[in-house]
User: What shape does this take?
Amino acid sequence: MPFPQRRLRRLRRTPALRRLVAETRLGVDDLIAPLFVREGIDEPHPIGSLPGVVQHSRASLRAEVARLRDLGVPGIVLFGVPEAKDPAGTGASDPDGIVQVALRDLRDEVGDDVVLMADLCLDEYTDHGHCGLLTPQGTVDNDATLERYAEVARAQAEAGAAVVAPSGMMDGQVAAIRSALDDAGHHEVAVMAYAAKYASALYGPFREAVDVEIAGGGDRRAYQQDPGNAREALAEVAEDVAEGADLVMVKPALAYLDVIADARAAVDVPIAAYHVSGEYSMIKAAAERGWVDGEAVALEHLTAIRRAGADVILTYLAAEVAELLGG
Ligand code: PBG
Assistant: This one.
């Protein structure tokens, strides 16, 4: 053969051609913005390791969600930073807890124009920083924790969450939450399960954002997944779908694109991927030094996550990308 039979460059020649044959599109419609709301503050507080992201006051949260709506971002997921923490994480299920108060504010502000999601976990609210209740020996008690998650789910649904998102990696959490919601008449509230959630070093900046320190320098390896395991992720995804999850999530995203692709192929519910705090901060830090083009890297990363099979992406880049894409 004197020259290649197929000249793949033909379809790469002009921007219009490239646009026409693009296999993957990143759109504002695919994005969910994670937001932090802190109890008892009047002004937003910056988060050092998450440049551009803040702990919101109630008022600044309302304004931010209205802005996201105007940018066309269809969903937000809320994390609370309570004033007081205790062993049972009481603030998570208190009707006057910060997330519940914020959800009522947001229903009032944007109604159903933005999908209001609530992260459902105890770690922001417990004084020991774990995602569940502790046994006297200091390990996380799976089944006792499920009862707390059921209470949190009910409180979040009462306050107006359209979607609750359990992130604690307890066995049976989706089933416990689904039945608690149904028993309370919240059949329409959906569950987005953090299904394959890894014990990742990329959550560091998030812990600063929610003021969480795990007691005694502990970690979450006894409930979150080992980064080397992929078959186990599929088992988690299958369990969560069987228990009634409406969407399933893989987290973090970039180091787990194989898991996203496997999950996409294995189940028919929408797949969410969480581009986590460390993934965001690494882009920002390198861009700040002029080492990479931050905007270009952001778009490349999010496009790759979509290409791997994620239908929706939770990302701190949501507003920025919505602006870039012309919202
Ligand atoms: C747990 C939770 C965490 C994140 C989301 N939900 C932290 C953890 O598991 O330690 C991390 C998100 C991020 O890093 O952006 N409630």
User: Anything to note?
Assistant: The pocket of PBG is lined by residues 119, 121, 123, 131, 167, 203, 206, 220, 276-277 (CB under 6 Å).
